[in-house]
Design a protein that fits this description.
single chain; 216 residues; alpha/beta; 8-stranded parallel sheet; 8 helices; 8 strands; globular; binds D-xylitol-5-phosphate; binds zinc ion
Length: 216
């Protein structure tokens, strides 16, 4: 089975967003990865609902929304309204993670949990049967264009072992510093979905770069 590729619009040209959305629509990419940052959970602010509303208008592929915000439950309904297919919340940001996962699923979205580089995979063991996606952060969230943290391979393997042991189906997605050099090793370790921002949008030919990443 080929991997799911989700270009992150964080690295797109925000002054020509429609052009970059169209590029992804016409490419072999599978999802749009949408990074929402609140300046509290992470030391950066990305964009909010008015921009998401515009993205939804033109995007013809599922919206994979990654919330780097505290108290994300305040906005679940709004993200549903603006077309999120997968809503991923951070383990570190949710005191009542189990409840939040149920809320996302009740709204008809797929539910994902993201873990920061310092968070062990075994901490999600008791929620793993409830989730559709585990997002392993391979950089510290907050910025695009950072270097891949190599310890992430081990975490992907552990997540894969957890899946195999209990026969779980959740997708293992990797986010941060993904490029053509590390992509195949990530897939070998057990990743099913790769997020790539800078490597796609800062390349000379983003559509070719997407193909290259899809071929691993
Ligand atoms: C980082 C974001 C990523 C980011 C990835 O906080 O979650 O999705 O856009 O960007 P690259 O691929 O440039 O590391
Ligand atoms: Zn992300």
């Amino acid at each position: 089975m080929s991997i799911i590729l989700a270009p992150s619009l964080l690295a797109a040209d925000f002054a020509n967003l429609q052009k970059d959305i169209q590029l992804v629509n016409e490419s072999h990419a599978d999802w749009f990865h949408i990074d929402i940052m609140d300046g509290v959970f992470v030391p950066n602010i990305s964009f909010g609902f008015p921009v998401l509303e515009s993205i939804q208008k033109y995007a013809q592929k599922p919206l994979d929304v990654h919330l780097m915000i505290i108290q994300p439950e305040r906005y679940f309904e709004t993200f549903k309204k603006y077309g999120a297919h997968i809503l991923t919340i951070h383990y570190e940001a949710c005191t009542h993670l189990h409840r939040n996962i149920q809320q996302i699923k009740q709204l008809g979205m797929k539910a994902g949990v993201a873990i920061n580089p310092h968070t062990p995979v075994n901490l999600i063991e008791d929620i793993a049967h409830e989730i559709d996606l585990l997002l392993i952060m391979s950089v510290n969230p907050g910025y695009g264009g950072q270097s891949f943290i190599k310890h992430s391979y081990k975490k992907i393997e552990q997540a894969h072992q957890l899946k195999t042991k209990y026969n779980y189906n959740f997708i293992i997605e990797v986010d941060g510093g993904v490029n053509a050099t590390n992509a195949s090793q990530l897939v070998q370790a057990g990743a099913n979905a790769l997020v790539a921002g800078s490597f796609v949008f800062h390349s000379d030919n983003p559509a070719d770069t997407i193909n290259k990443l899809k071929e691993v």
